[in-house]
Design a protein that fits this description.
Elements lengths: L6 E2 L5 E3 L30 H11 L3 E6 L4 E4 L1 H7 L5 H8 E2 L6 H11 L3 E10 L3 E14 L5 E10 L1 H50 L5 H26 L8 E3 H18 L2 E8 L4 E3 L1 H17 L5 E9 L3 E8 L28 H11 L3 E6 L5 E8 L16 E3 L1
Parallel strand pairs: 2-7, 10-12
Antiparallel strand pairs: 1-2, 3-4, 3-8, 5-6, 6-7, 7-8, 9-11, 10-16, 12-13, 13-15, 14-15
Helix pairs in contact: 5-6, 7-8, 8-9
Length: 411
């Protein structure tokens, strides 16, 4: 009888031929190893022995657990990681810092109930000897091939601390390289207001010396405007070049958006712009709220500036295709022919002295850190639409775990 072994079914489900367990120690005719197994003669290894040797020496931790979450099989790496614990959920609960995910027992039971593989990325593992480490976990349901019933699950834990550390160092290097490329353009941008400041200051000195002080205030005011533009450019450049790590504060996305709307409310009223909001009732929480708040404020400010004669800014949140979608739709002047250029550093559609052209570049940089995207498009009938998409996997898990509804509420 040929031993068929485990097979991966649909949706990442591992199927076990439960009736073949007694045959696991026999050689497989199609393995190419012959009747004697690996090595031949008395020292030959059976398929079972080879499988056990491979399983034990895997560099990643592998645990097989039953429906009661009891660990029935683990390799050497898993023994080092979880010790002699009996329940996989308890072992993880003692050694990991939860934040993104709910109770591990709930998570693993959900994997078995839904029969869907789940990935848990960036789990912090507390190691008293070497310090905190980052783990990527993959939990897969195990089913009996004969009756398709779920008999347990398999957890694979990979230590990605070194890889993540390297990715962060590469991200910093890329950021420094980007700043280096921008330096020449920054020098050009700063040179213009500096030249103007020097000329006006020289004129002011001549006026004071020969004709009195009537025109000095005007010259100094123009100098001040030039200096303020320099301040804006350098401030946004520093924001663009600062560390890639998001802050640890967290909040509901709707709440962050509400705070941004309130922050821009006075400007909207002064410019005759009405802001209409429609928030999805069940959106997840997000970490790094100060960064996202900056993105929302920038998009709202840009929309208001694009409507000098007043108009309507419509803001909506929703959950579409496993992502939180935030839409900013205005009735303003619209976008240039080359739409993607609005995300380039120092590209601005505003008048001279009214924008640095770094705002949207910074927004895209922040959103991409959440594995998300920000896009721009022309609105039918005039105006523009900016769309921010943040994958649910980048958000903190909501305990209700219900993000598929279509409800919303207007404000």
């Amino acid at each position: 009888m040929r031993h068929s072994g485990p097979a991966v079914g649909s949706r990442g489900v591992v199927e076990l031929a439960m009736s073949d367990r007694s045959e696991a120690g026999k050689q497989v005719d199609s393995s190419g190893l012959g009747d004697g197994g690996l090595g031949g003669g008395d020292a030959s290894l059976s398929v079972r022995e080879m499988a056990e040797a491979v399983f034990s020496s895997l560099p990643v931790a592998v645990v097989v657990f039953d429906r009661r979450l009891r660990m029935v099989m683990r390799n050497r790496a898993a023994e080092l990681l979880f010790g002699d614990a009996d329940l996989i959920a308890e072992a993880l609960g003692r050694t990991t810092v939860e934040g993104h995910y709910r109770d591990w027992a709930v998570e693993f039971r959900q994997v078995m109930e839904t029969r869907r593989e789940r990935e848990f990325d960036g789990v912090t593992y507390q190691d008293q000897e070497v310090g905190d480490r980052l783990l990527n976990l993959v939990c897969t349901p195990l089913t009996d091939r004969s009756n398709r019933e779920v008999v347990g699950g398999m957890l694979v834990a990979e230590d990605v601390t070194a890889r993540v550390s390297m990715e962060r160092r590469l991200a910093v290097s890329e950021r420094l390289a980007a700043v280096g490329k921008l330096s020449a353009r920054v020098a050009h941008e700063l040179n213009n207001p500096l030249d103007g400041i020097l000329r006006y200051i020289n004129l002011a000195k001549r006026v004071v010396a020969h004709t009195g002080q009537d025109q000095v205030i005007g010259y100094l005011e123009r100098s001040r405007r030039g200096l303020m533009r320099m301040v804006e450019i350098t401030a946004e450049l520093l924001e663009f070049s600062r560390s890639t790590h998001a802050s640890l504060d967290e909040s509901d996305i709707n709440r962050i958006l509400e705070d941004a709307v309130k922050a821009m409310e006075n400007k909207a009223v002064a410019d005759g712009v009405t802001i209409a909001c429609n928030y999805h009732e069940q959106v997840p929480r997000l970490r790094g709220t100060s960064n996202i708040f900056q993105v929302f404020c920038n998009l709202i400010k840009n929309a208001i500036d694009a409507m000098p004669d007043g108009g309507v800014l419509s803001i909506a949140t929703g959950v579409v295709e496993r992502a939180v979608v935030i839409t900013f739709e205005d009735t303003g002047v619209g976008l240039p022919e080359e739409i993607e250029r609005v995300f380039e550093p120092f590209f601005s559609t505003k008048g001279p002295g009214k924008g640095t052209g770094l705002g949207l570049a910074i927004c895209r940089d922040i959103i991409e850190k959440y594995k998300g995207r920000i896009t721009a498009a022309r609105r039918a009938g005039g105006g523009s639409v900016f769309l921010v998409r943040i994958p649910l996997e980048s958000c903190l898990r909501d305990r209700s775990d219900r993000f598929g509804g279509a409800g919303g509420k207007g404000t």
